[in-house]
Amino acid sequence: MSPPRRVELVVLTGAGISADSGVRTFRGAGGLWEGRRIEDVATPRAWARDPAFVWRFYQERRAGLCAVEPNPAHHALAVLEAELARRGHGFALVTQNVDDLHERAGSAPLHVHGSIVHLRCEACGARVRDVEHVDPERFVPCSACGQERLRPDVVWFEEVPRHLEEVDALVVRCTHFVAIGTSGLVWPVAGLLATAREHGATTVVMALEAPENLVRGDVFLSGRAAEIVPAWTEAFLREID
Fold first, then answer.
1. pLDDT: is 106 or 28 the higher one?
2. Which residue in 74, 75, 89, 113 is the catalytic one?
3. In sequence order, which residues have a C-beta less than 8 Å from that of residue 14 and are 6 or more positions away?
């Protein structure tokens, strides 16, 4: 009798999973982010042109994190990770979200688009976790080098997402790839589903609506993440038992 196959699961999460915790999704009608043009709040040029405006935008979002909590989908993924580790399987969580809800649920995701709970110094590169200083009218200086203002430690448009080589290596060798609450529009991360598919992984997509990168052959589960993710994780653990 051959030994059971080792599972290597990669989960990618997007705005849909955080929306069920009350986090507003950035992208809206017309490509606006909560009524703001992307060019005004989410590019290096916007930061250089009007740092006070960009800072207020992100400070409001940073302050809002205290009003939201991880939902059942976040917790289910944390439980899944622990159970897969106990059984000797592999698990990696990759998120496009800049909130810290996965961490608060007990996971350690790779943030490809950075994190708003962290601030970064453009002068010396220092990176600090900061959720206390959320005054929209006051910059936070760098305690390491004295630079007058830190920037949100997020990846803006025109900047390169993080951990791409590590994530790509994980996806190439995974046996199962799951995308939760993603639009399939933001590249290069949107291409991970195709990469997993091309390398023979079982691909599952969970979202309210079919994303742009869904194709025939992907398993599509329609619904709110807080409802369908816990049910899927339980079924997945039974399937590989």
1. 106
2. 113
3. 95, 96, 97, 179, 180, 181, 182, 183, 186
